Amino acid sequence: MPTLPRRRGIEAANRGWPTVVDARPAWPVLDLVSNSAAQTREIGARLGRRLRTGDLVLLHGDLGAGKTTLAQGIARGLGVADAVQSPTFTLVSEHPTVADGHPSGDGGADGDRPAHLYHLDLYRLSGDGELDSFGFDDYLAPADGVALVEWPERAASRLPPAYLLVRLEPLGDGKRRLAIEAVPPGGRYAWLGELRRELSGAG
Amino acid sequence: MKILALETSCDETAAAVLDGVRVRSNVVASQIALHRAHGGVVPELAARGHVTAVVPVVETALAEAGLDRGGIDAVAVTEGPGLAGSLLVGVNVAKALAYALDRPLIGVNHLAGHVYANWLGLPGEEPPPVPAFPLVCLLVSGGHTELLLMADHGRYRLLGQTLDDAAGEAFDKGARLLGLGYPGGPAIERAAAAGNPRRFDLPRAWLPGQGAGFDFSFSGLKTALLRLAERYRSPEPPRPRPASPPPGRFAEHRPPAFTPHAPIADLAAAFQEAVVEPLAVKTARAARAHGVRTVLLAGGVAANAALRERLRDEVIDHCGGEVPVRYPPLAYCTDNAAMIAAAAHFASDRGEETGWETDVHPRMPLVADG
Questions:
Q1: What H or E segment, with its residue span, contains residue B291?
Q2: Residue A190 lies in a domain
Q3: Would the keyword Lyase be found if you checked this record's keyword annotation (chain A) (predicted)?
């Protein structure tokens, strides 16, 4: 089982933006420190631009960890034009994307281009027996878009075997740690290594 | 005209009968007691509730109104926005009733319903003075934070909205961060009553230069409260920290525990004021900018006394004492069907009717033609 670098490593590397805590190319977890909400959105946008139809992204972190901020960035990267509000009370928000807002919109196979972002928030649920009422399973591998799930632990036993997991943790001073990993490693999220190189270059 | 209305867009199963704008009955099958036992809302139970409760709720609304089905002139229902599965229950029952009774079907936007709650008086009471147009309405609930301009009946313009958390959601999450109860709005309000709002300085998101300056944001406030509250948390027992939980498994979030003398009342008061101030000030600014004749509050957060008082003060400061601030009776602030019937009453006056092909509209916007 991979382990994250020790915390000391984060503080030492905590300058510039965004900090890739461990840049070893084979490391399965892309471990970042974001210094502001704007950086968190930018990281999200870079993730969003790489997402394809059928992808599932899970955002795990407590209240105030930056989940909705990251979701707003992912939506921007996918080409969502409208405001992405927290779906805590509504459980699911559907956002259409605009064709030229996503890299695959010009030239990519059309079937690949996510036409919708399905933004789920399971905060209000207390267990995974309560998911059927709004068709939770139907949203997980959407045929025309990407599913993004906040508070996925409320549906732990109902998750499919493959997803992109982002763990968020506040570090104080407005900084956030983001640990991004493909589960299982590689697969349809093999581009994570590419993102690591891109961010290492930018830092 | 007697309208039977159904509302099942979220957690409540509701039916009501209105005669004009007079409420003949207003029945809400709320499951808040059940929810409190779980420390949160339980949607599956709520949705099952829609299916099993909808017919008895309709029958009760008719019986309390002293009518049988044949006495109804039209059937109204919430078409959206809301949760598709929940909306579907109300829409299908309303369609079936309207079809069987050969009466018109009137689809209503849930947000319009909240605004029209301001036209209603309690059963047996005179309706309140008719709100004068143009007006602005601040709609604040668990799922909504919208500032609307209405030039006339049915003519809405969205002036601003939340960019992240809804105001009611902010109250719920703030209450959780402070270890207070659910629902969070009343819990914060109770705790804040004994608190000093000026002991702590929490940020207000004024968002200058974004849109028309009437948008709201409460996400940063939540984070600021979290950081303040952390100072007073009891030290956590050390826990073995697996550097990376195995894939598919998640570390647990612990509920907060506070030191005995944590200033929870002061934190709650500061938080409440930081939520209320931008809502009240921006609504008053919008009222002045658009020269309105009425300011309305709507939605569950309209029950918050601090918001009502601050809004009244700000409207007097911005517009003088001539512009009244109104809010619905408490029973019509939270989700209910009387407000849906009220919106349908005025839609019907304009000759609006909904076809049988209508479906649910989970992301239904308010028509922007103001």
A1: none
A2: yes
A3: no
Residue A13 counted as domain residue = no
For residue A168, give its domain range. 26-200
Say if residue B175's pLDDT is above 90.
Answer: yes
Residue among A66, A88, A126 whose CB faces B38 most closely: A126
pTM: 0.85
In a domain, A11, yes or no: no
Contacts of B190 (CB under 8 A, 6+ apart): none
Q: Is A86 on the interface with B (CB under 8 A)?
A: yes
Task: State ipTM.
Answer: 0.78
CA distance B8 to chain A (A): 13
Alpha helices by DSSP H, listed for chain B, are: 32-38, 43-65, 84-101, 110-116, 167-177, 184-193, 219-230, 264-289, 305-319, 338-349
CA of A94, closest CA in chain B: separation in Å?
7
Q: Do the domain assignments include residue A30? A: yes
Q: What is the pLDDT of residues A72-116, one digit of tens each?
A: 999 999 999 988 999 988 888 889 998 666 666 544 445 578 999
**Mean pLDDT, chain B, whole residue set:** 88
Q: Structural domain tally of chain A? A: 1
Q: Which residues of A fall within a CB distance of 8 Å from B161?
A: 83, 85
Q: Give the CATH number for residue A90.
A: 3.40.50.300
Rounded average pLDDT over B241-248: 50
**A165 pLDDT above the threshold of 90:** yes
